Amino acid sequence: MNNDLSRRGFLAAGAAMIGTGAVAQTANSTEIESDLSQQVQRNISSFRSLDWQPYFSNLNNGAILVDIQSRALHYWSEDQAIYKLFPTSVPLTDDLTRTGRTEVTRKVEGPSWAPTPAMRIRNPEWPEFIGPGPDNPLGSHALYLSWQYYRIHGTHDTRKIGRRSSNGCIGLYNEQIAELFGYAKVGTQVLLI
């Protein structure tokens, strides 16, 4: 009888843990993230390589394509010798998502971060500024885009990759943004679809 009770207890505890929300994962985070346990769908099947021609007329300065639906970033070098495919985090909601053509305007290793005016309204408790380091939501590197407040950047919170978890930016693992940072130039064309 003791085996039944401990087995039942174990199963009940396991079920309770599975049903628990992701609150602890977002503690001290500067990203807006609700309980993702019910809404996150991992996207494996559409994470595939693509050709650049349907999206760009040329590869001058290289090209970055971000597919919001598949949560993937594609990079092609100008000479077509390099093609990279990276998993990303994407904006949490459609109203935070911007699509269309832009370009890399600045590259920063060890970026600083400050919340946008809209973020400050939604989250007045957030700090006004975070310098480079492990608490910085932009991670180790950032590619600034011609759209104000939008970046392709790293993250120290690796749980965000593959999810709708950002306030508008595109996030990559720090190792992968460092690699992309090495390839991309000021002037690299970017398309978000």
TrEMBL record:
PROSITE patterns registered for this protein in UniProt: LD_TPASE, TAT
Associated pathway: Cell wall biogenesis; peptidoglycan biosynthesis
GO cellular component: extracellular region
Domain L,D-TPase catalytic: residue ranges: 62-193
GO molecular-function term, one example from the UniProt record: glycosyltransferase activity
Gene Ontology terms describing biological process: cell wall organization; peptidoglycan-protein cross-linking; regulation of cell shape
Organism domain of life: Bacteria
Catalytic-site annotation from UniProt: 153 (proton donor/acceptor), 169 (nucleophile)
Keyword terms of this UniProt record: Cell shape, Cell wall biogenesis/degradation, Glycosyltransferase, Hydrolase, Peptidoglycan synthesis, Transferase
Homology family: Belongs to the YkuD family.
Protein name: L,D-transpeptidase-like protein
